[in-house]
Amino acid sequence: MKFPTTIQNLIDSLTKIPGVGEKTAIRQTLVMANWKQEDLMKFGRAISALASIKKCKICGMFADHDLCQICSSYERFNSPILCIIESISDCIAIERGGYFKGKYHVLGNLLNPLLGIGPREINLENITNRIHNENIQEIILALSPSIEGDATSSYIKQMVPSEVIVGTLGLGIPMGGNLEYLDALTISKAIEHRRAL
User: Fold this and answer.
1) Which residues contact 190 (CB under 8 A, 6 or more apart)?
2) Residue 114: its pLDDT value, please?
């Protein structure tokens, strides 16, 4: 069946979202087509606003201003523990557990030479500055337990001064697992039982 251009454009846009296939996109589009005009306009404004979202100048999280909520929190910013994560969704997964009270550093990706992702393609450059400027005493490498995650962890470990404790997540993270898909309790326990590298 051929849809009107307006409907097809929205279907095509929705299929760009990971996990949304054509059937789901069609179903969601047809539901939205029945919304009131004011609800559609509000939804459209919310999506348009994403174009102006900022990234925190310190950690790389999404933010409304120059600093995210975590970096602008006095208690969190003064924590001596820095958790290095691959993506913002990993931060959300860790925060759901409510156990970790330190700060974050978002890499944006993991080292993967086969895909052309080297140290310059991920957010590594200011980690050493943060260690010195923010009095970091411990780093938790909360990266996926994969070949890429292990390679990135090894690279970061070599960057870090020897007096800083470097560890990884502990119990409960399966090999090849992804933080964003794990439950909050598993992640909390992994942080609590972190181990030194």
Assistant:
1) 142, 169, 170, 171, 172, 173
2) 86
Q: How many structural domains compose the chain?
A: 2
- Give residue 136's Cα distance to chain centre: 21
Q: What angle do CA 101, 106, 108 make, to 5 degrees?
A: 155
* Cβ-contact 182, 176 below 8 angstroms: no
Same domain flag for 89 and 145:
yes
In three-state secondary structure terms, 142 is strand
Task: Provide mean pLDDT across the span 129-154.
Answer: 91
| Four-CA torsion 43, 93, 158, 161, nearest 10 degrees | 100
Take residue 175 and report the two structure tokens written for it: 């090999």
84 close to 141: Cβ distance less than 8 angstroms:
yes
Convert the pLDDT of each residue in 57-115 to its tens digit. Answer: 999 999 999 999 999 998 898 899 999 999 999 999 889 888 889 999 999 999 998 88
Give the pTM: 0.75
Q: What is the DSSP string of 25-58?
A: HHHHHHHHHTS-HHHHHHHHHHHHHGGG-EE-TT
Owning domain of residue 16: 5-52
**What confidence score (pLDDT) does residue 8 get?**
95
